[in-house]
Amino acid sequence: MNEDGMTERNFEDIEVTDFAVREHRSLWLDAWRRMIASRTAMLGLVIVVVFVLLAVLSHFFWEYDPKIDLDYSLKLKPPTFITTEEIPSVHPFGTDKLGRDIFRRVAHGGWNSLRVGISAVGISLLIGGVLGLIAGFYESIPLDRIERGFLVGFIGLALGAIPAWIADLWFIYVLFAALGFAAVLLERLPLSGKLLKIAFALAGLLIGGLPSLFVSPYTAVVNGLLGLVIGFTVTMSLGGRLLSNIIMRMMDIILAFPSILLAIAIVAFLGPGLDKTMIAVGFVSIPTYARLVRSTVLSVIQKEYILAAQSIGEGHARIILRYIIPNSLSPIIVQTTMGLASAIIWAAALGFLGLGAIPPEPEWGAMLGDSYRFLSSGAWWAVLFPGLAIMLSVLGFNLLGDGLRDALDPRIRS
Amino acid sequence: MGAEPIRPLFFLEGSVPLLRYILRRVISLIPTLLGVTFVIFMFTRLIPGDPAVAMLGEHAAEENVERIREQLGLNRPLFLDRNALQEGDFASFFDSQYIRFLGRLFQGDLGESIHRRIPVAETLALRFPATVELALTSMILAILIGVPVGIASAARRNSALDNVSMVGSLIGVSMPIFWLGLMEIILFAVFLQWLPSGARLSISFDIEPITHLLLVDTLIRGNLEAFYDAAKHLVMPTIALATIPMAIIARMTRSSMLDTLQEDYIRTAHAKGLSERVVLFRHALKNAMLPVITIIGLQTGNLLAGAVLTETIFSWPGIGKWVYDAILARDYPIVQGGTLIIAIVFVFINLLVDLSYAYLDPRIKYE
Questions:
Q1: Is the CB of residue A349 less than 8 Å away from at least one CB of chain B?
Q2: What are the tens digits of pLDDT across the range B246-262?
Q3: CB half-sphere exposure, A75, CA atoms < 13 A
Q4: Least crowded by CB within 10 Å, which of A3, A38, A333, B195?
Q5: What is the ipTM of this complex?
Q6: Which of A85, A36, A93, A4 is nearest to A403 (CA)?
Q7: Looking at chain A from residue 170 to 229, which residues have their Cβ under 8 Å from any Cβ of chain B?
Q8: What are phi and psi of B119, to 5 degrees?
Q9: Looking at CA atoms only, how far is residue A242 from chain B in angstroms?
Q10: Does A261 contact B312 at a Cβ distance shorter than 8 Å?
């Protein structure tokens, strides 16, 4: 391609392909070939593989007990590559404030970072993915009657919680859930819509008001009014759009908080520790995945093969499993790879603030947080190497994700 | 292209659907904002520990704790008082902690810090400008570098410049900014000793605040020495905070420009024999900037909100570090007030981005 973006082709350049004899290549094989052709993607892959190997090998084959690792005589020594009388052991990355070998701790910290990253991405992918799938799917395809029954029944249950709590009578929940379910079942009755609405509003009034009379007349009045509103609500034609709206508004609420503050708050609530870090980091990125999956599903669902599957009467679960999920995979794979990168950064950030790994457990962010007070004494190595490890591994996953996007995205193939 | 006649009130043309769209977007914020207040309220109530005990200390007398609880309204139920309803007391029925919390919010009362007994709103007014100053300088730096780099990379696709800047931007995106900040401190504050490593201004300067933005205040007061000092304090945190948005903006500008350069009207412009520069800046850039503006808006929201790490490293007296310290100290009114303001600012910036997008791109339907 030349500079002005136009392609010049000579006749000889055009490759003639006989499609009948061309070897069969699957979509994934195609993508793989495109990826290994890209230098940056391969660089990313190499970094990721080296990092994973280092973490896994050192975890399983290089024993390390952080609890007994300390040697004050080697406190804050700069990197050494040969043994001397003063420093009898080799420390390629130097030692930290307790005389611990930084290289060893960086290698073992990799295991922790990888663990946290994978679990956090797993949490957000699972929860966010399912929410996004539901939102995207039912926004475009109408719910069938049973599903609608469950949705409206659930809405009755959720709204019914208010009068049930006010009267302190648990069975009111169940009654309202049944009312919601019935609203869907009785939709096809040959009654006029208005009459049905009035009937359900009255039923709501009775369900809310009558049991509450045993508590107090005032409670009965309030609950009766609430019941009236709920009864009326369940007869409105509530559908998938409402479901999608509820889910996405919830995601908006999470997104309204800055992720780092939200993660800090969750860890402050749960207490420090790597497992809590996983939950916090996983939770804050749920909306990212929900939004991505929803928009992917919305575009996949427009395709003709979905219409074809619907028209031959395939069920919703089968359409989702056989057609929608396989066709939505590529953006999700890309996002997951990049999500690993950001999960590693978030986990390190929490560790840096002293909210992640509990010392003396090696973790890159916590190592930075431990050592940065010694910066003014010039101990640059204690900060440089753990940070470099974070940056390189994150860069690796980002490069790989970028390469995957180019390889998997059919639009850039030309 | 002939000169188009200037139409009066051109910006209002076809604005009825636009106004309606704005109104609907603003209304759709209400449930989100209510949800935000609900989450913040629930968080501070669910976290273990009694604020009254936190105020008075572990060994306070029972009746004192009870008095403080009553003062703070902690003896009220969380949402609704069902026992009051049974007595027919409708006023007390609605008199709950959450409703009181909402009521105070509407009056702009964010409560008092538990440990220091200073109104939260007062500290917020001092702290927020520090964050705004840092975020805005960072964003300006990010735009000034990111956008031209992105344009140049797109114009010279696959050139050495393109490769270098794209690898550079990937490194930027992958940068743990707290580490970058530390490395800056080592280099510029410890070894070279060129720049101060923390705070907004050296103690020797005393600037009467006007806008609380130090760069502006020092200029208004005509104190150039203080201006220079404030600028020096800003350099390192600005670079640290600008790195990620700069990289994101450069990547976005590049990919958006590349998309635009493939459009038919660009080919037409080339075919007309227009110069490369005219095609690039007059025809392509304007259309390519739309997604970039979105990203700039979203990133500005992130900077205002998420500068916790940068502020911590450089002891910047901004809102992020304040809320972080308050979370650790369990000073709930600060956490509530600070988080709420951040979330509201964030939500409104997103709204502005959406609206500007709809206004700038006439193809978008106001659905």
A1: yes
A2: 999 998 899 888 888 88
A3: 6
A4: A3
A5: 0.78
A6: A36
A7: 215-219, 222
A8: -55, 135
A9: 14
A10: no
